Amino acid sequence: MIAEDNSNLKFQQLQDTLRDRWQSIDIFDQDDCDILVVPSFSIDPQLGQKIPGFLHYEERLLFSLIRLRNPHTRVIYVSALPLCPIIIDYYLQLLPGIPFSHARERLLQISLYDASFKPLTQKILERPRLVAKIRRALRSDRSYMVCYNSTNLEQDLSLQLGIPLLASDPKLLYWGSKSGSRQVFAECQIPHPDGSYTVTNTEDLITEIINLWTRQRDLQRIVVKLNEGFSGEGNAVLNLNPIKEYAPHICEQTKTINAITQELENLSFQAAGETWSNFSRRIPELGAIVEAFIEGEVKTSPSVQGYIQPSGEVEILSTHDQILGGADGQIYLGCHFPADSRYRLELQNIGLRVGYALAKKGAIERYGVDFVAVQKPHSQEWEINAIEINLRKGGTTHPFMTLKLLSNGTYDYDTGLFLSQQNQPKYYIASDNLQQDCYQGLLPNDLMDIIAQARLHFDSSTCTGNVFHLMGSLSEFGKLGLTSIGNSRSEAEEIYNHVEQILNQETSLSSQDCSLPIKWNK
Question: Contact at 8 Å (CB) between 367 and 308?
């Protein structure tokens, strides 16, 4: 216990240096610093195994290489598997005004050659010689570490390296969980769906389902969520209609319990191949909540992304309309930027309230809030419900940071638009899921040939075009990520659809053979 207290104290002292050295988000982009990028998805390994190409999601943070545009900045990028050299070259050629070789000399790539589903940070910690190598490469007084999410693993690595972690203290993880999110929303008096806090066994889960159904007699569906999830993979939907005759307000409790128990076997799982047997085994370990499923004829899934500076100040970075798929529209596929003008300013206001609540609890760096927005019948008004908080980087982080770093533009809080240096509003569509079986076998080099031949590149003079990611997953999984940037939403869609059309042609298949992976929200 004394050793643990000493470690926590030392970690806090390291974190305090963030406030001493860097007071705002802009200064983190300053010259003459060392950035250790550890793109570890430190989540439940079983969740990761359900996502095709999950190991390659470490490439999401490759936008960090754009920081090498500062001529004295150095970056160490660690990955579980070797990154194809041409992928690194692709990102470095995006740098404006910096010779390629100059940036290359300031980048140290480290691969662990470990394809297991253990978190990358854990793999690093299991290799003491590697930890020592990284420590020697860093200037401790000018270094910080960035990660996907902050857990005790990242804290341990921070301590062993003696550098601060640009992320929230792992002791705050609860506030980014499903249950913790609901508690923050309640504290801030932000509308959110009726539901429960954490349960750790099936019996209590059924009790909370009954309590929720009793409070809302017309409820049609209930969402069951594991407290720890990724892109909606830990969600399942319980359809109440098949057992409505056993509703608690019209039936004795024993029959209601039996009916719910049997119907849990028929949950609509968002993760492919999931079963109740496996899902229920995770409840004691991860905890779970139940939540009313929000119905609506016209419904969207927007989000807001904010940033908590080390000084405690909060700013809004972006709003998005998320593109969701899966059996019940719970799986994150991609996003539009910015969110719909009819509600994006309201998202910003709610995002600020959540941000300052998190800051009071000690959180720093990025956070996101997901919502469900339903248009009221015969009205232009929207009902906004907050769903969950992501106290980490998310699926909307890398596309926005890519746009920001490449354009040197600014986010206009009054309009919710992003403006280039020429005051031109920018829009984009981003996806991690441009995936077709017919793309399997394409190597990163093949993709580069296609990009060059079809002129699918990013044009720095107009700040429009495509920036690709997840290229490492293309050959095995036929899966690719990209951000398509335009001067209007329709132009961004056209740019994205053109990429897909070209890829279909290059794999000798017609557009009818390869269906669209996502449907644009109109």
Answer: yes
* Main-chain dihedrals φ then ψ at residue 515, nearest 5 degrees: -80, 155
CA-CA distance, 145 to 138, in Å (whole number)?
10
Contact 74, 102 (CB under 8 A): no
- CA-closest candidate to residue 403, choices 471, 485, 513: 485
- Burial track 89-126 (b if 16+ CB lie within 10 A, e otherwise): ebbbebbeebeeeebeebbbebebebeeeebbbbbbbe
Tokens linked to 105? 């000399």
SS3 annotation, 120-146:
HHHHHHCCHHHHHHHHHHCCHHHEEEE
Q: Which residues contact 254 (CB under 8 A, 6 or more apart)?
A: none
Distances (CA, A) of 114 to 37, 127, 370: 17, 11, 33
Dump pLDDT digits (tens) for 59-90.
989 988 988 988 899 999 999 999 999 999 99
User: What CATH number was assigned to the domain covering residues 299-506?
Assistant: 3.30.470.20
Query: Bigger pLDDT: 168 or 133?
Result: 133
Residues 57, 41: contact at Cβ < 8 Å? yes
- Cα separation of 302 and 150, whole Å? 24
CA angle 88, 89, 95 (to 5 degrees): 100
Q: Which two tokens stand for residue 358?
A: 């998190």
- Residue 113 makes CB contacts below 8 A (sequence gap 6+) with 80, 81, 82
Question: Of 459, 382, 450, whose CA–CA distance to 426 is shortest?
Answer: 459
Beta strand 235-239 with 221-226 is antiparallel
Query: What's the CA dihedral at 169, 171, 176, 178 to 10 degrees?
Result: 170
**Average pLDDT value for the chain:** 89
Cis preceding linkage at 338, omega within 30:
yes
- Determine how many CB atoms are found less than 10 A away from the CB of residue 270: 25
- Residue-wise burial string across 314-337, b where 16 or more C-beta atoms lie within 10 A, e elsewhere: bbbbbbbbbbbbbebbbbbbbbbb
Provide the residue ranges of all domains of the chain, joining segments of one domain with +.
2-167, 194-292, 299-506
Q: Is the pLDDT of residue 342 over 60?
A: yes
Give the three-class secondary structure for 383. Answer: strand
Higher pLDDT, 237 or 379: 237
pLDDT digits (tens, 9 = 90+) for 485-495: 999 999 999 99
What count of residues does the chain have?
Answer: 522
For 430, the 3-state DSSP assignment is: strand
Backbone angles phi, psi at 506, to 5 degrees: -70, -20
The predicted model scores a pTM of 0.89
